[in-house]
C-alpha cells in the first residue's frame, strides 16, 4: 500500500462518515446491534437478514455503514446477557460466559461489563486502522490457506479446547466428540443424503447452534439454580459492589486486551475462521500464561478481557477480505456481499478504486461506531447490573421466555425449542458429572468446517494424507497442536505414575 496516500484517504473517509446522514445511520446500526446482541438467540445474521429490505431504497454508503454497525454492535451486545444471566446473545459470547457470569455472581458484573466495553473499543480501533494500513497485504495472507491448512487450524482449535477444560482430560475429549457428532447431523454437502436425522425432517438442516448454546447454558443454568436454596440464589444475584473496574482490574486486563486484539486480527482475515475460534484461542492463551490457571472459570477478569477483545478485533478485520478481495469470511459477510450486490457494487479490489468514498467511509465509520458503542454502553452498565437484583422467581420465567422466543425465532419452529430443552437437561447432567460445556460448543461449531476441509483436502491430494504434513503452514499448526496436547497429557501420566509408585511403596 502507498502510505503517502493514507492521510488523504482517511480524510476522505472521515468527511463521508461525519456527514449527518451517515452518522445517524451508523448510530442506528450500533444501537440496533447492541439491543439485538442483548436478546438471546437473535444474532447479527438474523438481524441483518431481517433488515436487508430496509436498505434497498438507501444510498449504498449509509446502507452498508448501518449494516456494519449492526454487526460489530451485536458482537459487543452479546456479552451483556452472557455476563448477567449466563445466556449467549450470539455465538462468540459463549467464551465470555465462562468467567463473566462468575464475576456477576460475585457482585462484579459492573467491572466485567466495563472491561468488555473497553477491550472491545481498543480492539475495534486497532482493527479499523489495520484495515486502513494493511488491508490489501493482509488479505493476500488468506491465499496461503488451502483446505489442508484450514483442517489443521480446526485440529488446533479442538486441542485448544482440551487445554481450555479444567477438569478431566477424558471428559473433555468426550465432550468434544459429542460436539463433533452433533455438528455433522444434517444433509451431507457432497451426496445430499440426510445423516443421523432418524427420519425427523427438522434435523435434515442440522441442529441449530443457538438451540444448543441456549439449552446448555440457559436451561442448564436454571435447572442447576432450582436445586439451590432460595437464600443461596438471592445472595448470588443481589450483591453488587462496584460499577467500574479497579486499578488492579485494569492492570490485569491490559495484557489480555493486547494479546486478544492480536489473535482476533489474525483470525478475522482468514475466510471461514469464526469469531468463536478467536475468542477460544484468546481464552486458552490467557489460561496458559496465568500464574494461577485455577482462577479461570471462577471469575478471572482476564477471561473476559482477552476473548472480548479477540471477538471484536475479528469482527472488524473480517471486513479486510470482503472489501479488498470480495471474499466473505462467514455468514454475516456473505450477507454484506448480498447487500453490496443489491446496491450494484461488485465486491473486490475494484471497490477501493471505483468507490473510494464507500471504502474509506466505511472504515472511518467503524472507528466512530466503536466510540458510539462505548458511549452507549458504559452509562448503561448501572442499568444492566440492576437486573441482577431481580428475584429469581421473576427472573427465571423471563429468562425461559427469552430462551423460547430466541430458539423459536431461528426457523419459526417449535422443534428448536424442544432441542434447546433437551440440551438443557444434557447440560445440567454434564455439569453434575464434571463435564464442561465449552469443549462441546467448540466441537459443535468446528465439526462441519473440519469435515468439509478434510474431504476437500483429500480430494485435491487424490487420497494422499501426507498433504497435511508436506505443506509448511499445515505442518506448523499440527506441531503446535501436538505440543499443546503433550502439555496436557504428560502431567496426567506423571500423576498416574506417582499414584502407582505410592501404591507399590505401600
Reconstruct the topology from this structure.
Blueprint: H1 6-17, H2 20-38, H3 44-55, H4 60-85, H5 93-105, H6 109-141, H7 147-164, H8 169-183, E1 186-187, E2 194-195, H9 209-226, H10 230-238, H11 247-268, H12 275-289, H13 302-317, H14 319-325, H15 331-342, H16 350-354, H17 356-377, H18 381-386, H19 392-411, H20 414-432, H21 437-460, H22 467-470, H23 472-505
Antiparallel strand pairs: 1-2
Helix pairs in contact: 1-17, 2-4, 2-17, 3-4, 3-15, 4-5, 4-6, 4-13, 4-15, 4-17, 5-6, 5-12, 5-13, 6-11, 6-13, 6-14, 6-17, 7-12, 7-21, 7-23, 8-21, 9-19, 9-20, 9-21, 11-12, 11-13, 12-13, 19-20
Q: In short, what is this structure?
A:
The protein is an all-alpha fold and 506 residues long. It is built from 23 helices and two strands.
